């Protein structure tokens, strides 16, 4: 779908809880599975992990900063 046709569905770079971002990437999965899927995709992408580590990403936090979301989107694409 062309996002210009439906501007309210534009993805925005902002803070997201991990559950929120995981559900955007995997809307058909329950939250637990969506979180595990997103975590697996992130771990499998070495460049993504390296770039997150370079900005001191804390995997124990419950949310992603806008900068972290930007890096994730850079490697995984927009949800």
Can you count the helices? 4
Average pLDDT value? 92
Q: What low-confidence regions span 5 or more consecutive residues with pLDDT below 50?
A: 1-6
The percentage helix is 40-55%
Number of strands: 2
Spatial gap, N to C terminus: 13 Å
- Sketch the topology as an H/E string, one letter per element: EHHHEH
What is the CA-based Rg, rounded? 13 Å
Instruction: Write out the strand line-up for the largest beta sheet, numbering strands in chain order.
Output: 1-2
Percent of sequence in beta strands: 5-15%
The major β-sheet equals: 2 strands, antiparallel
Q: Globular, elongated, flat, extended or rod-shaped: what is the shape?
A: globular
Q: Helix/strand/pairing class, anyone?
A: mainly alpha
Topology readout:
Layout: E1 16-17, H1 18-25, H2 31-44, H3 46-54, E2 63-64, H4 66-76
Antiparallel strand pairs: 1-2
Describe this structure in words.
- By secondary structure, this protein is mostly helical.
- The chain contains 4 helices and 2 strands.
- A two-stranded antiparallel ribbon has the order 1-2.
- The radius of gyration is 13 Å and the shape is globular.
- The relative contact order is 0.19.
- The N terminus is likely disordered.
List descriptors.
4 helices, 5% strand, two-stranded antiparallel sheet, mainly alpha, single chain, 79 residues
């Amino acid at each position: 779908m062309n996002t210009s046709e439906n501007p309210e569905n534009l993805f925005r770079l902002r803070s997201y809880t991990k559950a929120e971002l995981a559900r955007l990437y995997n809307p058909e999965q329950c939250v637990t599975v969506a979180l595990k899927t997103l975590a697996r995709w992130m771990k499998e992408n070495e460049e993504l992990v390296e770039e997150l580590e370079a900005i001191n990403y804390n995997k124990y936090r419950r949310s992603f900063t806008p900068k972290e979301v930007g890096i994730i989107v850079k490697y995984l694409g927009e949800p």
